[in-house]
């Protein structure tokens, strides 16, 4: 039972990294992408190939994965961000479909539908990671590191510029902000950080194939972000936990055939999304954050009015 719970915990960490990095695009940059699974896959394949042919050091594999994902994201961001948001969605969908074809057909590199097997264990400071506890700590460490990087980015001047562009691109441009450069950098950062999830996933399973990086995953990641709450650092973490634990919970429902679990799961996803859009459009965390922001804005407005009143009385 402990091994099963550790497996769920690792998968939650991997999906949370992906959801948090996608939320950086959706919630803070206002960029909607249907290709996040592509960067997950590229990071996974890069880690597998580097570990088998160059070095099994976790740090070498991570750097290679992040660099390759960042470079690939430029191929998407540079042409797509020259136009408005809906065109980026279309371009990202095209990249997702193209990537699945490449993962399936480039057999000499990706192994085709059979995938890549016998991936060696990662080495951290000269010590191979081979136990369930070791992989859980590794996944948790990557989750914390990615969350910290995103937190620093959001609170930096870059993050504030990004949110200003999200709120009003024309106003930000009028203030002299380089909108295209900032948006492109946000896509590169999100893609590179998403590649780290592929590193953890690759070494944890010791096997990867194209079925783990399809459009279904990109849509599921978007659902995690929306359910958890966009524009919140911890909302996607909650969304990832819910949507990873849900299939596990359904598998224990008495009388439910295992063959029907997938269909029931999709129906529950759809129902949850509809109910959230009606009653909590900001997501589980996002709605509470909006209320706090509204209260803060009301307090600030009241203070401003009071100061203006005092000035008029004098």
Protein traits:
single chain; 314 residues; mainly alpha; two-stranded antiparallel sheet; 13 helices; 1% strand; membrane; transmembrane
Outline the structure in words.
- GO terms for molecular function: branched-chain amino acid transmembrane transporter activity.
- This is Branched-chain amino acid transport system permease protein.
- Keywords: Cell membrane, Membrane, Transmembrane, Transmembrane helix.
- InterPro entries: ABC_transp_permease (IPR001851), LivM-like (IPR043428).
- It is found in: Cell membrane.
- By secondary structure, this protein is mainly alpha-helical.
- The chain has 2 domains: 2-214, no CATH class; 290-314.
- It has 13 helices and 2 strands, in the order H-H-H-H-H-E-E-H-H-H-H-H-H-H-H.
- It has a two-stranded antiparallel sheet.
- Strand 1 (123-124) and strand 2 form a beta hairpin.
- The longest helix is centred in the last third of the chain and has 31 residues, at 283-313.
- The N and C termini lie far apart (72 Å).
- Mean pLDDT is 84; it is low at 294-298.
């Amino acid at each position: 039972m402990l091994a099963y719970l550790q497996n769920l915990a690792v998968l939650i960490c991997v999906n949370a990294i992906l959801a948090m990095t996608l939320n950086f695009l959706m919630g803070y940059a206002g960029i909607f992408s249907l290709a996040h699974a592509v960067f997950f896959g590229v990071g996974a394949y890069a880690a597998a190939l580097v570990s088998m042919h160059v070095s099994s050091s976790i740090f070498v594999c991570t750097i290679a994965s992040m660099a390759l994902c960042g470079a690939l994201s430029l191929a998407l961001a540079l042409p797509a961000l020259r136009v408005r948001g809906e065109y980026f969605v279309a371009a990202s969908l095209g990249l997702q479909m193209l990537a699945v074809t490449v993962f399936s057909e480039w057999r000499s590199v990706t192994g085709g539908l059979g995938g890549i097997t016998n991936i060696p264990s990662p080495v951290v400071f000269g010590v191979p990671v081979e136990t369930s506890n070791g992989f859980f700590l590794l996944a948790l460490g990557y989750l914390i590191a990615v969350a910290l990087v995103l937190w620093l980015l959001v609170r930096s001047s870059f993050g504030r510029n990004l949110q200003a562009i999200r709120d009003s691109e024309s106003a930000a441009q009028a203030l002299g902000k380089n909108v295209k450069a900032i948006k492109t950098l946000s896509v590169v950062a999100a893609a590179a950080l998403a590649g780290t999830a592929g590193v953890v996933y690759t070494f944890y399973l010791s096997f990867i194939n194209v079925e783990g990086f399809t459009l279904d995953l990109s849509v599921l990641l978007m659902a995690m972000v929306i359910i958890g709450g966009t524009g919140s650092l911890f909302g996607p973490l909650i969304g990832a936990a819910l949507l990873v634990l849900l299939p596990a919970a359904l598998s224990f429902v008495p009388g439910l055939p295992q063959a029907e679990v997938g269909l029931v799961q999709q129906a529950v996803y759809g129902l949850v999304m509809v109910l959230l859009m009606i009653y909590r459009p900001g997501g589980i965390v996002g709605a509470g954050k909006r209320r706090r922001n509204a209260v803060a804005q009301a307090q600030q407005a009241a203070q401003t009015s009071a100061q203006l009143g005092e000035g008029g009385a004098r």
